[in-house]
Every structure is written in C-alpha cells, then in structure tokens.
Amino acid sequence: MVRKNFVKIFSILTAIVLLSAGSANAAGVNLIGGGATFANPILDACKAEYARDSGNSYIYNSLGSGAGRSGIDKGDFDFGWSDTPHLGTSAPAGMMHLPVVAAPVAIMYNLPGVTKQLNLSATTLAKIFSRTITMWNDPAIKADNNRVVKTPIFETVKTKVTIDGKVSYTEVVKKDAKSNPIVKRYTSQREAISLPKTAITVVYRNDSSGTSGIFTNYLAATAPTVWTKKGNNDFPSSFPGNINDVSNLGKIQGAKGSELTSALVAKTVGSITYAEKDYATKNKLPVAKLFNNVDIAVAPGAAGVSAFLSGATFNTNGTLTLDYATLSPVAYPLGSTSYALVLTKYKDAAKGAAVKELMTYILDKCAAKFPATEFAVIDGGLYDFNKSLIAKIS
C-alpha cells in the first residue's frame, strides 16, 4: 500500500513538472535587455503587444546607454541599447548596431507664466547649457522669441491603430513616395514672448548617457564657437568650462536617467533639460522649437526627425553619421536613432531567433502602433538598411 501510494504521488508530481515545463515552452522565449532610457518609452509601450502577437516576451531595464554597452559586453543582456555607437574594444565579437528606433531629443523647461512655446537657436541653447546665459530674460533668448518665426504645418492622414484587439484611429503625418513628410503650409508669425527675470537651472544626465552624447554632439557641431569641446556621453567631460565652479553651485544639477532629469525639471522652477520627448509629455512639461539651418523653427516630433535622418550616411557597422549641416526646411536638428546592440550569432539558437523576431517587430510595428510617443516610423532607405542587418542575426 505504501509503495502504491508512493508511485501515485510520484506520478502526480511528474505530471505537475511536465505540465509546468509545457507551460514554460508555451510561454515562448523571454529576452532580457537593457540600456538607453531614450528607447524605454517605445519599448515599454510595445511590450504587451509584442507578447500577444509573438508568444515571446522581453524585459527591458532602463538604466542608461553605459549600462546597455556593459550589459552586452558581459553577456548580462540578450540585447543592449545605446544612443551612441559602441565602438570600444570591449564589444563582443559579432556585435552590431541596429538603428531600429528614432525620436526627437526635446528641450523641456519649467517656466510658469510663459504660455507660448519657446523658440531657441543652437547658439542660444549652447550658451544656456554652458552657463554663459544664466537668466531667462537674457537678450539672446529674447531675440529668439521676439521676431518673425516661420514654422511648418504638416499634412496629416487618419490611420487605423489596433492595440489589444481594439481599433482606434489617429492622425499621423503624411509622407510622399520618398518617405519625406509632406508640408501643408508654413506659418510666419511675429512672436512677442515676455520672459521673466528668473535664474536658469541646467539639469543634465550624470550617468553615462547616450542622450548626453546626442545632445553634446549636436551643440559641438552647430555652435562650435560656444560649445568648444567634443560631444561626450559624460556631460561634464563635454562641458566647455569648469562645471564645478562656485558660480554654478545649485544652478547646474545632475540626475540619473531621463526619468529623473525630467522629473527634477518638473519640480524646479526655471530649470531646463534634454530628453526624449515622451518624458516631457509624461511630466507635462513644454518643449521648445529649434531653429534649423534654414532658420525655420521645428517642434520636436516624428516628422522632423524623419526629415533630419534622411540626410544621414549609413555605415557598415550599423551606425549612422548624422548630417548636422542639412538644409532640409523641415528637419528637426536634434533628432536621432537609438541603437539596439545585438549579436550576429547567439549560442542559443532559439534566443537568436527570438532576438531577430523582436528587432523585426520593433522596426515594423512599434512606432506605428504607438504614434503618441513621437517615435518615427522608419521607412525608405533606413528601413532597408535595418532589414539587411537584422537578416544577419542567428
């Protein structure tokens, strides 16, 4: 009797184990990724849809580009993420960059009483972040916002979006046959924005940040007489002066990750920072329009990013060389891709197949499903470039 009961119990336990294993297999492959906070809004938004559509899943740790690079180096992540290229010798053999997402880095600020959207030139922006300009009513900021400002108005089209099986319709910018955003018209309006006598507090990323790299590369390229150092993922290393000077105490503050820098601006009157636009939306912060190379003020958005990236050069390692001298009238000059860091050959073939499927899904589906994030739908030559790279994953 004891033996029969033992066999019966053992059989039940075996069945439970087998059922559990079957459930795990049914759940598919779970991938672990991490890195750039820039990419987190679209990866977070798309996570549930990907799981529903594919049967696989992923966890993304929004830790900063530095963590994305070290995570892929150490094998902690199945895919890393970095806003700037990972070109160091520590990168694992067969690693490549996939520019599968693109979005604007927005300049967001906290300036109560100013209800109109600010306009900023590259030179003025460089002076603000280098602490050459320290007050919001500085003549240079006044000059950018008390003049005739020309701005593009894009043509839109109603698009069907399906999330969790539910259909809705949203307006997105219409593109032509060459994937360029179509301009409906330009507005020219004389702005007269009154600016307060309020001290500026600069908020920057104090971790290894690809967003800092994007931003400081832009300043170095477009305002080199002010931002005299090369761009760097470490903001203090790129800062053209002594960031620890006594005059900067309390007026230049660091925080880790876009989540915390944007939250710090939301609670600090007079402050300003840079982060992917979705962080401004979540913190209810206004964002500035930036004057491009033909003196047109463009708001941070998917259309302006698409126009800016259309002039980029594609490199064999998957990276892009951005054209900061572009003369596109609708380019938003602080747009960027963000790079998934993946391997061409995974030890686990099932994991490699899942990474390949995920990158294809992000490229094909995520930005289109979640247009409110202002991540650009990648198409045209950049789409084909990504597809050729994704095909190498196994």
Overview of the structural elements:
Helix 2 crosses helix 11 and helix 11 (349-369) runs antiparallel to helix 12 (380-390). This protein has helices spanning 2-26, 40-54, 65-74, 122-129, 139-145, 210-222, 235-238, 257-266, 277-282, 302-309, 349-369, 380-390, and strands at residues 30-35, 57-62, 79-82, 95-109, 119-120, 148-154, 156-163, 166-173, 183-190, 201-205, 252-255, 271-276, 289-291, 297-298, 313-314, 320-321, 335-343. Helices cover 35% and strands 25% of the residues. The strands form five sheets. It has an eight-stranded mixed beta sheet, with helices on both faces. With 394 residues, it is α/β, with parallel strands linked by helices. Residues 1-26 have low confidence and may be disordered.
Task: Name some characteristics of this structure.
three-stranded mixed β-sheet, disordered N terminus, globular, 394 residues, D-Maltodextrin-Binding Protein, domain 2, 17 strands, 12 helices, alpha/beta, 2 domains, eight-stranded mixed β-sheet, single chain
